[in-house]
Amino acid sequence: MPRMNTLLDAEHTAARLPWAPLVDELEALLGDATVQVPPRTVLPMADGAFLFAMPGCDARTAMTKLITFTPANAGTSRPTIQGDVTVFDVASGERRLILDGPTVTGRRTAAVSALAARWLAPNLAGPMLIVGAGVQGYAHVEVFAAALGVRQFRIASRRRASAEALAAHARALGLQADVVEDADAALADCPLAATCTPASEVVLRALPRADAFIAAVGAFTPKMVEIDAGLCRHLAATGRVVVDSRDAGHEAGDLLQAGLDVAAMPSLADVVRAQSKARADGGPVLFKSCGWAGWDLAAARLAVKPMG
């Protein structure tokens, strides 16, 4: 077992971030008045790559995530997200852990979607549509099953082989999973959906069910998009659009390209603090996730807790 003050690999990082406790830690962080999270620094690099520096702290724990996003690595043996999360003890200033950055990003992103669904989804019964069969596709299947009890999934991907591999993974977890060719057609049967793609093109256009919850996680810059502009406007007009943090005001490509006033939309923190869970008759919900260092801080807080 790795000791504190060590560099953890992907496997040991994941072991310190089990799904259900991670979702609970994310929710707990939103109620912690000591949390400080400044805007993240985003440095554009060559060929569409970015360097992200994301610090945050509470009264006991501080962390900084430093990662690169390299879209040119998609489809290669190199991951698109690389880097580390360094965790410190506030009282002593001591470095406690260095976590694997892509693992933290992958797990906290999916766990945020699950937390949003806990508060916002009108219907958690499933099936759940997963669009995209990469890291986030796998993570969303796992967390929605582990933390919310979803048992049935529909998988859509540009590559049939990738969709089949994710469906096989879900079945190995004891879940029901089927590959679908048309994500728009499948949306009619799925009250839950998550778009987990590289966000280079629109992947959902169809109008959803009245009890739908859609988590859009792929687009985190103004030029990226997964959800059709017309669909975004429909969801804003007939239901509810919630963003993961105030940073989405200048990062939520789907919403910005739809011409919506993102700054006026409630954040997940607003929802949780107001204790305003979605009503079953409240219409469809779009949750737009762009990423926030607070989510990484929650993961860091969980990672330094004693395991047992």
* CATH homolog superfamily of the largest domain: NAD(P)-binding Rossmann-like Domain
E-strand count: 15
Helix-and-strand structural type: alpha/beta
Q: Going across the major beta sheet, what is the strand order?
A: 9-8-7-10-12-15-14
CATH architecture of the largest domain: 3-Layer(aba) Sandwich
Low-confidence stretches: none
Protein name: Delta(1)-pyrroline-2-carboxylate reductase family protein
Pfam family, one: OCD_Mu_crystall
InterPro entries: NAD(P)-bd_dom_sf (IPR036291), ODC_Mu_crystall (IPR003462), ODC_N (IPR023401)
Keywords:
308 residues; alpha/beta; 2 domains; 10 helices; 15 strands; ODC_N; Delta(1)-pyrroline-2-carboxylate reductase family protein; ODC_Mu_crystall
What would you say this structure looks like, in words?
With 308 residues, this protein is α/β, with parallel strands linked by helices. The protein has 2 domains: 108 residues, ornithine cyclodeaminase, domain 1 (2-Layer Sandwich); 184 residues, NAD(P)-binding Rossmann-like Domain (Rossmann fold), CATH 3.40.50. The chain is built from 10 helices and 15 strands. A 7-stranded parallel beta sheet has the order 9-8-7-10-12-15-14, sandwiched between helices. A 6-stranded mixed beta sheet has the order 1-6-5-4-3-2. Helix 3 crosses helix 4. The model has no long low-confidence stretch (mean pLDDT 93). InterPro entries: NAD(P)-bd_dom_sf (IPR036291), ODC_Mu_crystall (IPR003462), ODC_N (IPR023401). This is Delta(1)-pyrroline-2-carboxylate reductase family protein.
